[in-house]
Every structure is written in C-alpha cells, then in structure tokens.
C-alpha cells in the first residue's frame, strides 16, 4: 500500500514537473507565428461550440431581403470588419494572417461562413472570441444591426448586385 501511494505521488509529481517545464521553458509559444499546439484547434473549436450552445439555433427576426442585406453591407463596411475579414473580390488584407488565429475571409473569394447557421454568426459578432482578435460588437451595434450583418455573411455567395456594389467600395461613412 505504501509503495503504491509513493508511486502515485512520484507519478503525479513527474507529470506536474513535465507540465511546468513545458509551459515555463518555452515549450508553448504565445507568438502568433507557427502552427497550432497539439489538440489546440479541436479544443478551441469544442469550447467555442459549447459557448455558442443553443444560440446556433436562433433565427433572425429580420428577413434576408435586399433592404436588410444592404444595411448589413453598410454595417460591415463601417465597423472595420473589412480591415480583418477583407472586401468582396479582393485578396485578403495583409494583417489577416498576422493574427493567431488568422482572421478568416468572410466574403468571396474567401471561404466565408455561408454554411454556418445565422444564429452562430450572430453569437460570434455579438460576443467576440476570447484569445483572438475578434472583438465583441454588443453595445457598439444594435441587435438588429448584428442580425443584418449576420444575414449578409450567411448569404455572401448570393448577394444582389446593389449589395455587392456597396461591399466593393472603400470605407463609407
Ligand atoms: C481586428 C480584427 C477583427 C475585426 C475588426 C473583426 N474581426 Fe471577426 N474575427 C477576427 C479573427 C481573428 C477571427 C477568428 C477567430 C477564431 O478563429 O477563433 C474572427 C472571426 C469571426 C467570425 C467567425 C468566422 C468563422 O470562420 O467561424 C465572424 C462571423 C466574424 N469574425 C465576423 C466579424 C464581423 C461581422 C466584424 C465587423 C462587425 C468583425 N468580425 C470584425 C478578427 C476580426
């Protein structure tokens, strides 16, 4: 029994020591350069999914008609979304890749979030994403504006031409 307990204590001690050395001697780098840590991506993904939870099923109180998509395009243009997430038909802004995680391109030719439920995008824009450059827009934008920009991103691959026109312009305010 004593031997077992001793083994347990030594075992746990070694684990803690390894963890300590890994974290404190540069095993983990907080620099933005380099790839993800082991399991970082899947853990971050699961934590985010758990935070969003039921909100992913939230439906927009506003329809995805041209007026709301147009309003969403103005929200996108006037709140620096372009700075990190790019403009329509333009290469990614240079700064996007200097964040870790990188800022994804949300308008074509970027991959965007057209496959995500609009409730998920609404949650992300409202709350932001901790440990990333993604700011929270609650308080800065009204809930209606957050829905409008979420509808815009959900429909980014099939926007009416007048909406595309706004998204090609330089910042308009
Ligand atoms: C300073 C840079 C920055 C600004 C400004 C910014 N974002 Fe982000 N955003 C990010 C980064 C970085 C991520 C990636 C976070 C991650 O992967 O965990 C992100 C993620 C997102 C996502 C989730 C993308 C996905 O693939 O799931 C959405 C949606 C989003 N941003 C929308 C917006 C909107 C809309 C605005 C403007 C109202 C905005 N962002 C402004 C940096 C920014």
Describe the 3D structure.
The model has no long low-confidence stretch (mean pLDDT 93). Helix 5 packs across helix 6 (143-154). It contains seven helices and no strands. It has helices spanning 2-24, 40-52, 66-78, 81-85, 118-127, 143-154, 161-168. The relative contact order is 0.16. By secondary structure, it is mostly helical. It has a single domain, classed as Cytochrome Bc1 Complex, Chain D, domain 2. The site of heme C has 24 residues, from helix 4, helix 5 and helix 6.
Key phrases:
single chain; 173 residues; mainly alpha; Cytochrome Bc1 Complex, Chain D, domain 2; 49% helix
Task: Please specify the SSE layout and strand pairing.
Blueprint: H1 2-24, H2 40-52, H3 66-78, H4 81-85, H5 118-127, H6 143-154, H7 161-168
Helix pairs in contact: 3-6, 3-7, 5-6
Radius of gyration: 21 Å
Structural class: mainly alpha
Instruction: Give the fraction of residues assigned to helices.
Output: 40-55%
- On the 0 to 100 scale, the average pLDDT is 93
Strand content: under 5%
CATH architecture type = Orthogonal Bundle
| CATH homologous superfamily placement | Cytochrome c-like domain
Count structural domains: 1
State the name of the first-level CATH class. Mainly Alpha
Shape: elongated
End-to-end C-alpha gap: 74 Å
What is the N-to-C succession of helices and strands? HHHHHHH
Number of strands: 0
CATH topology: Cytochrome Bc1 Complex, Chain D, domain 2
Ligands and ions found: heme C
